[in-house]
Amino acid sequence: MKLNALRALVTAIDTGSLRSASKKMGVSQPALTKMVRELEAELGATLLERSTTGVIPTAQGKILHARATAATKELDEAVQTIGQMGGRMVGELSVGAVPLALLLLIPETVRTFSADYPAIMLQLREEMYVEQLSQLHQKSVDVVVGPIPKDMRAGECHIERLMPIEMVVVVRRGNHAAARANRLEQLSNARWVYTSLSGHTGYVRTLFERHDLPAPPPAAIVNSTLGLLSLISHGDCLGLMPKAIALHPAAAPYLSIVPLQEGPLMLELGAMVRSESMLKPMVRKFLAHLHRAATHIETTSKQVGFASVLG
Questions:
Q1: Any idea what DSSP says for residue 238?
Q2: With 60 as the cut, is the pLDDT of residue 39 above it?
């Protein structure tokens, strides 16, 4: 199989049009059509269904598209890495980050990293932590920035510790009954919002279990900080969120932190990458800038008297 023919098939399926694919690849439409047909002849299978509105992949085409996409991506990354090892810092870097990281770490990291390496395009994805590791394992992102899991298997990925996180219990400002609670046990019958994929996991459950208390069932499950803020600020639900977000000017007018004797749930924010990705110079450079940003935030917060935000 010729690499250009595989790229032609992938581009045709991605764009849904032979004409668009030919323009994107910089070849004539007849030339691109010829490459796809030669590929079909080599495999003895129809890969594209053609119509007046465009093209769609057949079952066989979907299989080859998935494998060819992965193969061409690996080859492109190899070319980028070899170039970077020679000092040519160009390419793309995909980063998945939890909202706290996007609020505190990523802006400073992007500022300094982009100043040093302007030819590298950063793709930033805001995701809840539970989705990030899945994206990392699927190679959809190069770096994830989020709480370091306690049950991470040794050697599963490379981890760099960045900064502590205080997860605090928050309620709607004006929800005086919940805000007056001083022990976690008093909130066992409250309506809790979980940020997880199911009620069987999540930081709320972790908080209760660490204090030998049964975890309450979730009243709602969300997969975004915006959803969590909305449910808590407009109802009688409770939730857990990083203290830095709860104190942020965009959230603070609507939320109260419950002053529990047990204190916050302490987590650690870290950067996680696949072990093989550490060979990429741009990944190592980005991690260095993340550390620089974490140090900058800690130093600045102490200078202005907000050390408590970082724990």
A1: B
A2: yes
Q: Is the pLDDT of residue 197 over 70?
A: no
Token look-up 């109802």 returns 235
pLDDT at residue 146 is higher than 90: no
DSSP H or E segment with residue 152: none
Contacts of 291 (CB under 8 A, 6+ apart): 160, 162
CB atoms within 10 A of CB 180: 12
CB 211 within 8 A of CB 262: yes
Identify the architecture of domain 3-85 in CATH.
Answer: Orthogonal Bundle (1.10)
Quick one: which of 29, 40, 30 has its CA closest to 6? 40
Single out the residue of 138, 133, 116, 163 nearest to residue 286, CA to CA: 116
Mean pLDDT for the chain overall: 85
> Is 89-311 assigned to CATH 3.40.190.290?
yes
Helices (H), 200-256: 203-210, 225-233, 243-246
Average pLDDT for residues 37-58, to the nearest whole number? 90
What's this model's pTM, rounded to 2 decimal places? 0.65
Domain assignments of the chain as residue spans, ordered by start: 3-85, 89-311
Residues 6+ apart with CB under 8 A from 167: 203, 207, 240, 241, 242, 243, 264, 265, 266, 267
